[in-house]
Write a structure and sequence with these properties.
By secondary structure, this protein is of the alpha/beta class. It is built from 21 helices and 34 strands. The strands form 9 sheets. Strands 1-6-5-4-2-3 form a 6-stranded mixed beta sheet, sandwiched between helices. Helix 5 links the parallel strand 4 and strand 5. Helix 1 runs antiparallel to helix 14 and helix 11 packs across helix 21. The longest helix is centred in the N-terminal third of the chain and has 29 residues.
Length: 849
């Protein structure tokens, strides 16, 4: 009988209530106030006219594995009503909800037929052909309630998820025609009009701003299962918005440098050429002088703040900037984010105009209250990667430190004078191009600005690091004859390597592959027996014999994704039914008798989506969010959380941007590190930072080849992962599906061993994303892939320790390659390779409780 850890009662627990209260508090710092012409806050709790698809159909988070199965979701309608507002437009809300329900039922019927016709799982259809949200119904004259209230709120919602990218078209990046018509009607009939964006990624707001009568725009994003309460807190003024954008919002989609060739835009979803190089987001807009609607780091408040740079000084290998922040308003308390940028000198290496190097958020400041923040950063953080010398380099010249509250609202605070060029890290180039392409170029030169402080940098205080790379892997051996166990490792009587040396090839292969061995088994999101709904388990082959725990893995990143309700028979055998994935729900057998079954419950808390969390710019709060997830991991016996997701927002149309944090690698890395510290404050619990790396496209995601330069990789797409590893040492990394310069990320030795382990010092386990090396029907969504699937043998060669969720062929290929000394799918592996991978899995498993 398997161990089952779920709760027996369906009643809400005190811990669940406490977690929702915590989530509500941290979510209050995530919304960003984009526009406000004196409309907000809505202090009077009177009548309001509420419209928009997101009013009742509030989206708590995106679709796919990032979804969280919660007990309930608080809609905007419910949150406002419970806050004391009277909603006078329930007739329109009801009519729109019925229209949406009809369209959804039509889609589900079509999807079921599609799965049947093509003999593929329902989940593959859902990921490859996601539901297209219909436009809202147009407001009729009888539904305008201007005689009952002068205030209207319109909630625009957008959903997206894994498996498909968004489109620059009406109803997605652009407004539905019906939304334009409805907003125009509201602007003509109501004195106060607030637009709320319940969205998971950047969209065009120029159309909204052009409509007369719009008085405020609030970026709510998607705030988890208590989002309706949080929005009411912010709209009423109980919480002053303090979020800041983590992306640049363009005037026109075509202003993004990747727009022309991104994903399906050019008809080529096999090859993605990163021609913008290092010029991603504000690095591009600021360097090329392209005006944005809203710059990176932007966000309004209900109050005002004054920033003053007090001092700047070198302290060893770091620069410390002291900034005084004063709430200059007279009514509302609030928080401000101080952002520190630097402009590097022109030299042999091309540089962006400015780059974020540090930031900090104040405490809650009352009107007139002042706080001084001391913000530090390493001098080496201003280095650029030189492909010619394979080093991180600080070129000689003047470095201008800028301080402000957005990328376009800064002052030149200090000049750092470096009189000689310094190498901060000596490495080797790892990521050769597999195709030639030309990157855009712009030598952005900062003006010779006056600064209050000038520092002559002491170059001798800047450390120089030299990477040492792994040589040929050697086999592990031991002269110990007794059967070694995890208890021996924990007591110091043997090493992991000695235990691994006693294992057979078959046992080693088993530990390098997940436990879903049936080709007709479960799909992502429900591949664990002891914790139903978890994404998968590591091997339990030697759990009894050697004490090696099978690690239980659960999806994220907006909370734990588990099956809320399941049943077993009295012998503890799991019964079919209760599985949830998006709109799919497997019913229980209606013939089951209550006295013959046991019911179990796993209700988890949905925190705000990754994009929203990052917009808080509050690492202390993010650590608390991670701590909360860690508590739920302990409760339900989950070992590794498949989060944080931290790929760069290269383009706003990436279907999974809702999970990811920012266009900036510093924000991404710091956010992931904070969450990881919170989770891993619980001994034996760990995070899995993903998707490593360059996972910027969802269309054809298993087979898309990202062509990107070494410098752009290191400065933009790998930097966040590097920060997270160095600052928080996550227990796991998950590789991405895509290829990088012709090599599958899952098979890339230089990515996993060279960069992560040798250069950054990663000590945990690496795993594949689900089905990376398994040929599952329907993965291409009907597209004929140009590139082959990732090789199972290639994973072991690269140091991708655990192939998930695993299949028998994975194990057979590994055993055959080692025992028969032959190449399979382009890779030949050795016993030493297999031992190395298995040791990494067992080393982490030995930390689990």
């Amino acid at each position: 009988m398997a161990e089952i850890y779920a709760l027996r009662s369906p009643e809400i627990t005190e811990a669940e209530k406490a977690h929702m209260a915590l989530a509500r508090g941290l979510a209050g710092e995530c919304p960003v106030l984009l526009e406000n012409e004196g409309v907000l806050p809505l202090k009077e709790k009177g009548n309001i006219a509420l419209y928009g698809a997101g009013a009742r159909g509030t989206i708590k988070g995106g679709t796919g594995s990032g979804d969280v199965n919660t007990r309930m979701t608080v809609t905007v309608e419910q949150g406002l009503a419970e806050a004391g507002y009277t909603i006078v437009t329930t007739d329109w809300i009801e009519r729109n909800a019925n229209f949406y329900k009809q369209k959804k039922q039509e889609y589900l019927a079509w999807a079921a037929q599609k799965a049947k016709e093509e003999n593929i799982p329902d989940i593959v259809v859902a990921l490859s052909y996601p539901f297209s949200e219909p436009g809202p119904v147009v407001i009729e004259e009888s539904e305008i309630k201007a005689d009952e209230t002068d205030t209207a709120i319109y909630v625009i919602s957008r959903n997206s998820g894994e498996g498909a990218d968004r489109f620059c078209k009406e109803g997605d990046y652009l407004l539905f025609p019906e939304e334009k018509e409805n907003l125009t009607i509201l602007g003509q009939n109501y004195k106060k009009v607030v637009v709320v964006l319940n969205i998971g990624g950047v969209m065009d707001v120029t159309e909204i701003k052009a409509i007369p009568g719009i008085g405020a725009i609030l970026l709510m994003t998607q705030l988890g299962n208590i989002g309706g309460y949080v929005l009411a807190d912010v709209l009423s003024g109980d919480v002053t918005p303090s979020g800041k954008l983590t992306d640049t919002w363009a005037v026109d989609y075509k202003d993004y440098p990747s727009s022309e060739g991104f994903s399906h835009n050019d008809g080529n979803i096999d090859d993605e050429y990163y021609t913008e190089g290092i010029y991603v987001g504000y690095r591009y807009f600021d360097s090329f002088g392209v005006k944005a609607v809203y710059p990176f780091g932007y966000g309004k408040s209900y109050t005002d703040f004054a920033l003053k740079v007090v001092s700047a000084e070198q302290k060893g290998a770091e620069i410390e900037v002291s900034v005084s922040v004063t709430n200059t308003g007279n009514e509302y308390s609030g928080k401000e984010v101080v952002q520190v940028y630097y402009s590097a000198p022109a030299g042999n290496l091309e540089k962006p105009y400015q780059e974020l190097v540090a930031y900090a958020k104040t405490s809650l400041l009352a009107p007139g209250q002042e706080e001084t923040l001391k913000i530090s950063f390493a001098i080496a953080d201003m280095a650029s990667y030189c492909e010619k010398c394979a080093s991180w380099v600080l070129e000689k010249g003047d470095y201008i430190v800028r301080v402000g509250n957005s990328s376009k609202d800064t002052v030149a605070a200090a000049k750092l004078v470096l009189e000689e060029t310094v190498k901060t890290e000596e490495l080797k180039n790892l990521f050769a191009k597999d195709a030639e392409f030309e990157e855009i170029s712009c030598q952005a030169k900062a003006a010779d600005e006056e600064t209050a402080f000038t520092l002559k940098l002491d170059a001798s205080a800047i450390p120089i690091n030299k990477a040492v790379y792994q040589g040929k892997r050697e086999e592990y051996h031991t002269d110990k004859t007794e059967k070694l166990t995890v208890a021996d490792i924990q007591a110091g009587r043997c090493t992991v390597e000695e235990l691994v040396a006693q294992l057979t090839v078959e046992e080693l292969a088993d530990y390098c592959v997940g436990t879903l061995r049936s080709e007709e088994g479960s799909i992502v999101g429900n591949a664990s027996y002891t914790v139903p709904g978890a994404a998968g388990d590591s091997s339990s082959l030697l759990k009894e014999e050697r004490g090696i725990k099978n690690m239980i893995l659960a999806d994220g990143p907006a909370g734990l994704r588990l099956q809320p309700h399941f049943k077993t028979d009295k012998a503890g055998n799991l019964l079919p039914g209760g599985e949830v994935f998006g709109d799919s729900f497997a019913p229980f057998d209606p013939n089951l008798k209550e006295e013959e079954t046991d019911d179990y419950y796993q209700y988890c808390t949905a925190i705000p989506i990754g994009w929203a969390l990052a917009q808080s710019w509050n690492t202390e709060l993010l650590e608390k969010a991670g701590d909360m997830v860690g508590e739920e991991m302990e409760l339900f016996h989950v070992d590794l959380w498949l989060a944080p997701a931290m790929n760069i927002h290269r383009n706003p149309l990436c279907g999974r941007n809702f999970e990811y944090y920012s266009e900036d690698p510093l924000v991404s890395g710091k956010t992931a590190a904070a969450i990881t510290k919170g989770v891993q404050s619980h001994p034996g619990k760990g995070t899995t930072i993903k998707h490593f790396a360059v996972n910027s496209q969802e269309d054809n995601r298993y087979f898309a080849n990202s062509h990107v330069s070494e410098r752009a990789l290191r400065e933009i797409y790998l930097k966040g992962f590097e920060i997270a590893v160095k600052e928080s040492q996550p227990l796991s990394i998950m590789t991405s599906y895509n290829l990088i310069n012709g090599i599958h990320a899952a098979n890339c030795y230089d990515l996993l061993q060279g960069a992560a382990r040798d250069e950054w010092g990663f000590q945990g386990v690496v795993m594949t994303d689900w089905f990376t090396s398994q040929d599952v029907p329907g993965l291409t969504g009907g597209h004929k892939a140009v590139y082959p699937i990732s090789a199972s043998t290639g994973c072991v060669y690269a140091g991708n320790d655990m192939q998930m969720p695993g299949c028998k062929k994975n194990v057979d290929d590994l055993v055959a390659s080692v025992k028969e000394d032959r190449e399979i799918d382009g890779f030949k592996i050795t016993l030493a390779d297999l031992q190395f991978n298995a040791a990494n899995v067992i080393r982490v498993a030995a930390k689990m409780k």
